[in-house]
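Exercise 7b. Backbone tokens:
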């Protein structure tokens, strides 16, 4: 899809250049006018291309990272993404299930673990040994990425952009706090833990979002992060479209209903609009775990 968009946009730009050079030589003022029009048109094409790429990916370079960034990396086959907080000095603090990136305690772990990075016996000296931790660990950036691509999680996005990013776990409507406070929360939780890991409502994404915003859902909703909402929203949308088949056989109607249910479930679960979301200091949060 991305390659198609790139090819489409660059073909459009190339056609403009081609038409310009194929025109007969005329008045210099006319040539200058055409050059100006060409420049403006090219800028518009590139602007549209950058907007499209922004919808498809939050990919960034390591050099652009700053302390306090919420980063993530997709694992094999895009089954899930692992999230963490970059704190500087090539170090990432992230939440795990006793050293394992993701887990449910059920047979599903066979699929999830096989999608994650291999666990090496010889650890990098920068990384916290999983067996000595309480779930929150510190790793070097390379170990965190585990050979994957680096992405930056987006905050304060508009509702339209939130819905346009069809896959959850890439952005939120919530507003991020100052970077120094984000790093403080991450480092404090590294020492004191983030409670019991739960793949649906207390996972690595929930950890990173809390560090960035200080927001917690107090009503103990069955799902937490955007990534978990996508996992739940998909089957829910499928069930809704199946039920609709009893009323109508219109394929487009069923598809529209499924998409609507999926988007609504993701939107309602976002911490940025949840009514039960409240600011909780990291010191008060860790007292609950004792």
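Sequence design result:
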């Amino acid at each position: 899809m991305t390659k198609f968009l790139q090819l489409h946009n660059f073909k459009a730009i190339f056609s403009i250049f081609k038409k310009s050079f194929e025109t007969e030589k005329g008045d210099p003022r006319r040539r200058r006018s055409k050059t100006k029009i060409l420049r403006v048109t090219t800028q518009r094409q590139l602007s549209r291309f950058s907007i499209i790429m922004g919808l498809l990916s939050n990919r960034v370079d390591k050099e652009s990272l700053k302390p306090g960034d919420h980063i993530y990396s997709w694992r094999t086959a895009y089954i899930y993404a692992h999230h963490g907080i970059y704190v500087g000095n090539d170090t990432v603090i992230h939440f795990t299930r006793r050293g394992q990136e993701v887990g449910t305690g059920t047979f599903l772990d066979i699929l999830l673990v096989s999608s994650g990075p291999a666990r090496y016996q010889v650890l990098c000296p920068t990384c916290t040994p999983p067996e000595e931790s309480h779930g929150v660990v510190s790793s070097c950036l390379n170990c965190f990425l585990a050979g994957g691509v680096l992405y930056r999680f987006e905050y304060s996005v508009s509702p339209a952009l939130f819905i346009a990013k069809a896959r959850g776990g890439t952005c939120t409507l919530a507003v991020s706090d100052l970077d120094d406070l984000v790093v403080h929360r991450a480092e404090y939780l590294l020492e004191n833990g983030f409670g019991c890991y739960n793949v649906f409502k207390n996972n690595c994404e929930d950890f990173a979002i809390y560090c960035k915003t200080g927001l917690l859902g107090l009503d103990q909703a069955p799902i937490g992060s955007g990534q978990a909402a996508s996992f739940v929203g998909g089957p829910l949308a499928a069930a809704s479209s199946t039920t609709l088949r009893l009323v109508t056989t219109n394929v487009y109607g069923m598809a529209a209903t499924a998409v609507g249910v999926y988007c609504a479930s993701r939107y309602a679960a976002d911490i940025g609009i949840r009514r039960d979301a409240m600011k909780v200091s990291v010191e008060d949060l860790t007292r609950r775990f004792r």
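Instructor comment: The CA atoms of residues 42 and 121 lie 52 Å apart. The two ends are 49 Å apart (CA to CA).
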